[in-house]
From TrEMBL:
<feature type="coiled-coil region">
    <location>
        <begin position="29"/>
        <end position="56"/>
    </location>
</feature>
<protein>
    <submittedName>
        <fullName>Uncharacterized protein</fullName>
    </submittedName>
</protein>
<keyword id="KW-0175">Coiled coil</keyword>
Length: 58
């Protein structure tokens, strides 16, 4: 059955399938994004510590 015919006959099933395929395809990118968010939070924390230490010495 060609893709277009399948889409017409089973639109909901087709969308669910596409959603799952998209999730599994993009999963590695999501893990990288989560790591970057954690690193960004750590960076902000360290920058705040540096700023506090700099202000204490002045």
């Amino acid at each position: 059955m060609p893709d277009e015919e399948y889409k017409k006959l089973h639109p909901i099933l087709n969308e669910v399938t596409q959603t799952y395929v998209g999730l599994y395809t993009n999963r590695p990118n999501e893990k990288n994004r989560e790591k970057l968010i954690k690193l960004e939070a750590l960076l902000h924390e360290k920058l705040e510590q540096l700023e506090k230490a700099r202000n204490e010495t002045e």
